[in-house]
Amino acid sequence: MQIEKKYFTIEEILERWQMPEHDLGYLAENDELRLSIRIYDVPMEFGEFRRLKSGGRRWSPKERTIYSGLVDLHPGDAYMIFRCSERNVFDFRQPDGSCMRVHYMASPVLVMLGDLLIRREERDRIEKVRGFKTAELCSGSTGFSASPDYHHVCCNGQHYYLGDVQARVVKELHSAAARGEPWQNGKRLLTVARSRSMRMADVFKSQSNWRDLIESDGRGLYRLRTEVVPEE
Fold first, then answer.
1. Which residues contact 173 (CB under 8 A, 6 or more apart)?
2. Is residue 33 within 8 Å of 126, Cβ to Cβ?
3. What integer pLDDT is reported at residue 97 of this predicted model?
4. Domain check: are 121 and 140 in the same one?
5. What does pTM read for this prediction?
6. Which of 127, 143, 178 represents a domain boundary (last residue)?
7. Exposed/middle/buried for residue 6 (C-beta within 10 Å: 0-12, 13-18, 19+)
8. Helices in the chain by DSSP H: which ranges?
9. Which whole-number Å values give the CA distances from 44 to 89, 102, 117, 224, in the listed order?
10. 156-181 per-position pLDDT tens digit
């Protein structure tokens, strides 16, 4: 029997999305995915940061309490946790936008990589926004399938989580293959995808196995490395 969880470990999410850990870290540190942790009996203050005329900020507490429950991480803290495996954290945020801070007389919360969680509503939001189809997208060992925005692609059994330009290139190649014109000029593809670089290898350098997804003829033409049945 499965229970209805309010939050999940990153291991559960990585398995569900068939995503490498570094890609999940990328989403978190760029504030596209909000990570959480669970704390117990921590002296906390609720309040806000006020802007000073000097350009700095000053913390203005409104309420103090001993808090237990889920709290959300700021992107900078998520960034350091993925790179250093742990971080002392003082400031947190809540889904409603309110700020929380560990009381100045209390110790910071030591957050380790294994402590990271994702709220159910955050998981569902990401899957809707980015069009993730979870592991079901790769139901077979061959062929091509993609989420509506092409940020999640499965080709010949391999998952790819693509950036904006990469997704536009693959979408264009898929559309061309469906028209019966699989081979496309690389520079034109990158121009259509609004890429700042005119080298396919540079655009896909974050995808170590991108050549298993896109094939080159060595003369400037590219196509998807899979069979796409042309539309009637």
1. 182, 184, 189, 214, 222, 223, 224
2. yes
3. 76
4. no
5. 0.59
6. 127
7. exposed
8. 10-17, 21-29, 75-84, 120-129, 164-178, 186-192, 200-203
9. 12, 5, 20, 53
10. 888 888 888 999 999 999 999 999 99
Q: Into how many domains does the chain fold? A: 2
The predicted-structure confidence for 106-115, as pLDDT tens digits, reads as follows 999 999 999 9
* Beta-strand relationship, 184-185 and 214-216: unpaired
Could you identify the residue written with the tokens 């009381």? 103
118 plus 139 within the same structural domain = no
| 16-67 residue pLDDT tens | 887 889 889 999 999 999 999 999 999 999 988 888 888 888 888 888 999 9
Indicate if 121 and 172 belong to the same structural domain: no
| Domain housing 137 | 133-224
d(CA 143, CA 85): 37
Q: What is the CA radius of gyration of the chain?
A: 22
**Banded model confidence at residue 1, pLDDT cuts 50, 70, 90:** very low
- Give the tokens for residue 32: 């596209």
